[in-house]
């Protein structure tokens, strides 16, 4: 892949393309569960075939009588309420478990491709800031051959929160940027310890509880295990969050691609628009180069050792982060973005190292008055055992250090 010198290549394009519909400000607060347009293809027909003997749940304004004892056959039964989203790997619906009246999310996927996602969800369930798997059952339609994952229900996403700020013309408070980013990194730390690479980290796959501000990573349809003999696909991750080594078609990637995507999420929370909004794969690389500058031969080799380092790239100097972030710039934000958005995947920090940076010092000095803050420093045994003592000391607030007064 080579790029010739031209006037457009030198132009700084920090704003997203005008033809990207997601950035058009329309209306006020977006609907919590907008009705999506089904994508084309076979999987567009996937939907929960739960228990046809039960009718769909009535609207929330209508009281729902509790079922009488003995009315239902044994085992869980669910009433679907609405479709939350459709994608290439399945459909997610909001549902009610009839006996307990508990709200859950049910993701329906093709049975033939569900094995790895099931194993990943089982392995990660209970880890900090990762959506919990509550159960699973096969669909009732023998021809469709689907599997239903029963997941905890969290009603909002970081994507909708960012969109709300963009539409309203308001800025996300820095405290909330820290709160969400801290939890995202902690969730990625859970994946890192279990040897899982998500490969589709983006705001739409980050669930947020509006009552507690708890954030959890979801949607493991493209996840894979690190250090296996499985041949990795280069075309993974949504384009705006795709690491440059993936754009250069490397098949040897690991959790560093998730750290790149997390850096893109941080930039998007600050700017309320994607940091790198390319129209296609080549344009995506141009967008990255316009901010980070042209990669050198060593960086190209680290991204893909098979890539032709002699390819001709237009030389573009890097931009200062203060110019990219404008009024949202801070030295701490620049330091964290610089660590995470590096061409060389090996130089990107692991999640716990990123959590220890100065960007989160304010959380450690003055924990925010939100419900989830009480859990920020209650690290699990697995988290503590995976960190060196000096890193653990950086992660803990001073009053929680051994020997310090409470």
UniProtKB/TrEMBL annotation:
Report domain Protein kinase positions. 78-360
Instruction: Name the segments for region: Disordered.
Output: 1-73
Write out the GO biological process terms: cell differentiation; signal transduction
Question: What's a GO cellular component annotated to this UniProt protein?
Answer: cytoplasm
Any single Pfam family the record assigns to this protein: Pkinase
Identify the InterPro entries for this entry.
Answer: GSK-3, Kinase-like_dom_sf, Prot_kinase_dom, Protein_kinase_ATP_BS, Ser/Thr_kinase_AS, STKc_GSK3
- Which residues does ATP bind? 107
User: What family is this?
Assistant: Belongs to the protein kinase superfamily. CMGC Ser/Thr protein kinase family. GSK-3 subfamily.
Q: What is this protein called?
A: Glycogen synthase kinase-3
User: To which species is this protein native?
Assistant: Cladocopium goreaui
């Amino acid at each position: 892949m080579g790029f010739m010198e031209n006037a457009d290549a030198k132009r700084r394009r920090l704003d997203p393309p005008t033809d990207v519909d997601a950035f058009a400000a329309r209306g006020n607060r977006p609907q919590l569960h907008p009705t999506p347009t089904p994508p084309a293809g076979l999987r567009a027909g996937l939907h929960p075939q739960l228990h046809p003997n039960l009718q769909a749940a009535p609207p929330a304004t209508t009281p729902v009588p509790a079922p009488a004892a003995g009315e239902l056959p044994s085992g869980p039964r669910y009433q679907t309420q609405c479709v939350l989203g459709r994608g290439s790997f399945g459909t997610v619906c909001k549902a009610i478990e009839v006996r307990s009246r508990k709200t859950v999310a049910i993701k329906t996927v093709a049975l033939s491709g569900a094995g790895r996602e099931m194993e990943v969800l089982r392995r990660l369930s209970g880890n900090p800031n990762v959506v919990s798997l509550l159960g699973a059952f096969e669909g009732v339609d023998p021809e469709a051959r689907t599997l239903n994952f029963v997941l905890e229900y969290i009603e909002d996403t970081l994507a909708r929160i960012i969109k709300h700020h963009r539409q309203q013309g308001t800025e996300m408070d820095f405290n909330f940027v820290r709160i969400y980013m801290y939890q995202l990194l902690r969730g990625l730390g859970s994946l890192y310890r279990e040897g899982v690479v998500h490969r589709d980290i983006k705001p739409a796959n980050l669930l947020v509880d509006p009552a507690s501000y708890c954030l959890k990573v979801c949607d493991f349809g493209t996840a894979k295990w690190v250090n296996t003999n499985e041949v990795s696909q280069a075309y993974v991750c949504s384009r705006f969050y795709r690491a440059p080594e993936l754009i250069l078609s490397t098949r040897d990637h690991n959790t560093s691609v998730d750290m790149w995507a997390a850096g893109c999420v941080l930039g998007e929370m600050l700017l309320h628009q994607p940091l790198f909004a390319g129209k296609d794969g080549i344009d995506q690389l141009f967008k990255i180069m316009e901010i980070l500058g042209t990669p050198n031969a060593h960086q190209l080799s680290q991204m893909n050792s098979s890539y032709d380092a002699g390819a001709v790239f237009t030389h573009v100097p890097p931009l200062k982060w203060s110019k990219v972030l404008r009024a949202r710039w801070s030295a701490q934000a620049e330091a964290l973005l610089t660590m995470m958005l590096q061409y060389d995947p090996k130089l990107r920090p692991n999640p716990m190292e990123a959590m220890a940076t100065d960007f989160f010092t304010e959380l450690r000095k003055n924990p925010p008055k939100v419900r989830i803050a009480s859990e920020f420093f209650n690290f699990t045994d697995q988290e503590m055992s995976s960190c060196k003592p000096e890193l653990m000391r950086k992660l803990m607030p001073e009053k929680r250090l051994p020997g310090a007064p409470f």
